[in-house]
Structures are given as structure tokens and as C-alpha cells.
Amino acid sequence: MKQKYQWVKRGILALLCLGIMGIAVVFGLSSYLKSHTADKIITETEAAELDADCILVLGCGVREDGTPSLMLRDRLEAGIALYEADAAPKLLMSGDHGRKDYDEVNLMKDYAMERGIPSEDIFMDHAGFSTYDSMYRARDIFCAEKVIIVSQEYHLYRALYLAEKLGLEAHGVPALDVNYRGQAYREFREMLARAKDFCTAVIQPEPKFLGELIPVSGNGDLTND
User: What is the pLDDT of residues 6-24, one digit of tens each?
Assistant: First the structure.
């Protein structure tokens, strides 16, 4: 009985050690991604000097009434401001349009058009289901080489890292700095996502969908759906 108890203790200790090691790896990779890409996060004024191919606005939550969440609204406002500052001639709205009843990208395009941006200057990536997919498709479908990525700062580190590893020349401009509800949970989840995408950047799998080339230098109406 005593020997059995000792084995149980050793098993629990081993699991604890593995758990601590796992946490250390996640924290370490998260810190590495942040430090590696921090100097690529710039201001709107700095971005206006880059002459980028497009401003890549990353989608996020849409409310049940069809309006953008606060986070998405702030990303759109930042993207529109960059377009108006001539940071790039085109906007690329990348998000989730995997179901008929959930559509981030058409909402994003409509929002920008209501602010006076011509439809032909707004491209939609309907299959930007993840940050990795958005970067991969910006390169392989929309033929972008130099991009300005727009998201909240905590998310930009991972987006910029993925863009770099996929061969994009990328800088990031953060949306308005707001303490959104549930931000502590998002920060924790983002640490896990950074560790996951560190591995994804090594493997570089194809995204769920690719398709025909739609160069971002052309007409955004080709992506209307």
C-alpha cells in the first residue's frame, strides 16, 4: 500500500512538472513573439510614409443585430484613417464569412463605404478564418507584398510574426487603445495563440481555402459577394 502511494505521489509530481514546463514554454514563446515584432508596431503618421500595397484590417466579432463589435469598429476606424492618410491605395478586409448568417467582411466593407471610400478600393477576404489564414491569403490570393496590418496591439504581435515568416513586409498600426470587457481573458488566450502560431509558422500548412488570384492592385468589386 505504501509503495502504491509513493507511485501516485510521483505521478502527481511528474504531472505538475510537465504543467510548469508547459506554462514556461507558453510564456517564453509569447514573450519572444512580442519582443521580436515590437519595433514593427508604428503610428499612423509613420505608416503614411511606407507606400504599402494595402491596409489589411483583421475582422472580429459582429453583433446579433448586424453591427460591428466595439473592437471591430475601432479596427475599421483605424483602417479608414490610414486610407485617408494615403498609407495605401487599397483596403483588404479579412474575416469570417463561413456561414450565410455570419458575415464580417461585407459589414466591414459597408462600414468603409459609408465613410466615403470607393467600393473598388475595398477588397474582401471571405475566408480569413484565422490570423494565419489572413496572412497567407493576403500573400497568395491577393498578391500583396507590403502590408499595414490593423488590429488591437495585443493581437498585432502575432499577426506581424506570422506575416514575417510568410515573407510579407509588414508593419502594424494599433486600433484605439481601449480596455474592452473581458480583455484579461483575451490576453491569456492570446498567449496560448502565440505559442500555437509559433509552431504554425514553422509548418506553414495551406489554409482551408485558397482559390483564384485577385491582386489587390486591381478592383475590389471582384470580391463582392
Answer: 655 565 656 665 666 667 6
